[in-house]
């Protein structure tokens, strides 16, 4: 029943989904105190732009992002790709393909990351494997998997087995998608500044890049106004991974910050980016080591 409902709602025009999403965003802001506080605090921490303007836009963008998942997961893959009106930077991926190098596409919780991944997968001549973390609402996982793991796309859970799948894909010369701003488990990250505040940052991505010689590209799908679709932006990583965990985490976060600055209201500021994962040392403790 849920699948049928998803497919039915997915047919609504993007403008309608986004309009309903704006209402949903404001409703969540008014009713959920924890969500309200976390979004406001993280956005204020960033120091980006005019806080009040960004806050109002961000509340609306959060709601749009939630309801556009109906289209991302429920429409045929080619219909999802057609929502992208422009793509900037695909030449960087073409250069890596011509050189025979595997690709690591990196997209934070920015814009329509599900649609960005679907669009990119449709342009590649081989499968793309995306790492994901199962949602807290278990009933969402089969819907998410049905929407993501189709055609040229595969998924890998954020577990040891999933990491092995990513490594296998990259060593085969294929591509992966990783969200770099998810808080990793204890021992799988280091504390590194993110908009001026320590955030537990993954070390997996730099390890994969160095172990496979993959080209690392940062990208996202910018949400256009009035349900007009999306603009995918792709840019090469600035700097290099050196093998030093702290330096690599700083390089990773600097690149994520640069991407967010392109569309700051479309970042998922409500995500608990600064949490201390169970078993991880406090940021102060790590600084003393």
Structural features, described:
With 289 residues, the chain is α/β, with parallel strands linked by helices. It has one domain. Helices cover 49% and strands 18% of the residues. The chain has helices at residues 2-10, 14-31, 33-46, 51-67, 69-74, 77-81, 90-98, 113-123, 140-148, 160-171, 204-212, 245-260, 283-288, and strands at residues 84-88, 103-106, 128-132, 153-157, 175-178, 189-194, 197-202, 215-223, 230-236. Strands 1-9-8-2-5-3-4 form a 7-stranded mixed beta sheet, with helices on both faces. Strands 6-7 form a two-stranded antiparallel ribbon. Keywords: Acyltransferase, Cell inner membrane, Cell membrane, Membrane, Transferase, Transmembrane, Transmembrane helix. This is Lysophospholipid acyltransferase family protein.
Number of domains: 1
Q: Rough shape?
A: globular
Main sheet strand line-up: 1-9-8-2-5-3-4
Please summarize the sheet with the most strands: 7 strands, mixed
Q: What fraction of residues sit in β-strands? A: 15-25%
Element order: H for helix, E for strand: HHHHHHEHEHEHEHEEEHEEHH
Number of DSSP helical runs: 13
Query: Which regions have little confidence, pLDDT < 50, spanning 5+ residues?
Result: none
**Cα separation of the termini:** 53 Å
Structural class: alpha/beta
The value of Rg in angstroms is: 18 Å
What's the count of strands?
Answer: 9
Q: Oligomeric status of the shown chains?
A: single chain
Query: What integer is the average pLDDT?
Result: 90
Summarize the amount of helix as a percent range: 40-55%
């Amino acid at each position: 029943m849920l699948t049928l409902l998803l497919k039915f709602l997915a047919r609504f025009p993007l403008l309608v989904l986004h309009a309903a999403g704006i209402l949903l965003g404001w409703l969540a802001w008014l009713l959920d105190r924890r969500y309200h506080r976390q979004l406001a605090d993280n956005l204020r921490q960033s120091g980006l732009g005019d806080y009040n303007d960004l806050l109002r836009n961000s509340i609306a963008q959060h709601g749009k992002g939630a309801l556009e998942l109906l289209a991302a997961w429920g429409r045929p893959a080619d219909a999802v790709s057609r929502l992208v009106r422009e793509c900037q930077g695909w030449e960087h991926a073409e250069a890596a393909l011509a050189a025979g190098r595997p690709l690591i596409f990196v997209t934070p919780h920015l814009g329509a990351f599900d649609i960005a991944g679907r669009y990119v997968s449709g342009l590649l001549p081989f499968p793309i494997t995306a790492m994901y973390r199962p949602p807290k609402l278990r009933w969402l996982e089969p819907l998410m998997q049905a929407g993501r793991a189709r055609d040229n796309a595969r998924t890998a859970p954020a577990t040891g087995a999933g990491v092995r799948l990513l490594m296998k894909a990259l060593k085969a010369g294929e591509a992966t998608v990783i969200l770099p701003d998810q808080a990793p488990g204890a021992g799988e990250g280091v504390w590194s500044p993110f908009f001026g505040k320590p955030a537990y940052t993954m070390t997996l991505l730099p390890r994969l890049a160095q172990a496979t010689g993959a080209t690392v590209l940062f990208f996202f799908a910018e949400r256009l106004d009035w349900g007009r679709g999306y603009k995918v932006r792709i840019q090469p990583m600035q700097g290099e991974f050196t093998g030093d965990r702290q330096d690599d985490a700083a390089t990773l976060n600097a690149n994520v910050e640069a991407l967010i600055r392109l569309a700051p209201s479309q970042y998922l500021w409500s995500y608990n980016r600064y949490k201390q994962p169970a078993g991880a040392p406090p940021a102060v403790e790590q600084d003393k080591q």
